[in-house]
Amino acid sequence: MEIQNKNVFITGSTRGIGLAIAHEFARLGANIVLNGRSAISDELLSEFAAYDVKAVGISGDVSSYEDAKRMIAEATETLGSIDILVNNAGITNDKLMLKMTEEDFERVLKINLIGSFNMTQSVLKAMTKARQGAIINISSVVGLNGNIGQANYAASKAGLIGFTKSVAREVAARNVRVNVVAPGLIESDMSDAIPEKMKEAMIAQIPMKRAGKPEEVASLVAFLAQQEYLTGQVVALDGGMSM
Question: What amino acid positions are annotated as catalytic residues?
């Protein structure tokens, strides 16, 4: 798929990995929908002025089915279509299993997994009718390997992988491609919250001996969006952590 002049909706894109993905697509000439639960500031939108593309902000809660439908309808009305969806919005709420409450578990699944269902279903009818489209879901190596204190997060990210493969099978004949990126330790607000000693121990387990950069995730997401014969795949971007 040619990226230039395409319309891309990136959930959770006001900072970190999501914002890096938005910048990468804008650099390649795509129009961008920035999304977050709070209103998108004019200051943030102004970052995209230099790209000579359209950049619009649409706020809403991906975990709400009605909100997801509204956001996609609003984006479609503004830009004409949504050609690429990146399901990036996600949260953590880490606790050991014995201390995790039902609410702790459900809240993470509702945003990370059900939010991706809500957004995907909201774009899928138009994509299959147009016989073109790309959906890239942001999972995690934790969804592949599990992690202590992250049963809720791991379940949501592993579920996203199964979700992706199933949807990819359903829509492949309509030329809609659905893939997963599973990042490892990436420099972000989320990783900044990890205690320094713990982070050093994690990096020691990575063959490349460093954390990844948001721009590296963004580059891979844009690559996947352009591949016409690649679907249902999980690409771990983790410096070799999950080898």
Answer: 153
pLDDT in tens, 138-174: 999 999 999 999 999 999 999 999 999 999 999 999 9
What is the value of pTM for the model shown?
A: 0.96
Looking at 3.40.50.720, 3.40.50.10240, 2.40.480.10, 3.40.1280.10, the CATH number of the domain 7-234 comes to 3.40.50.720
Q: Where are the alpha helices (DSSP H) in the chain?
A: 16-27, 42-46, 65-79, 102-109, 115-130, 142-145, 151-171, 189-192, 196-204, 214-226
Indicate the DSSP class of residue 228: T
Residue 243: C-alpha distances to residues 136, 148, 231 (Å): 22, 19, 21
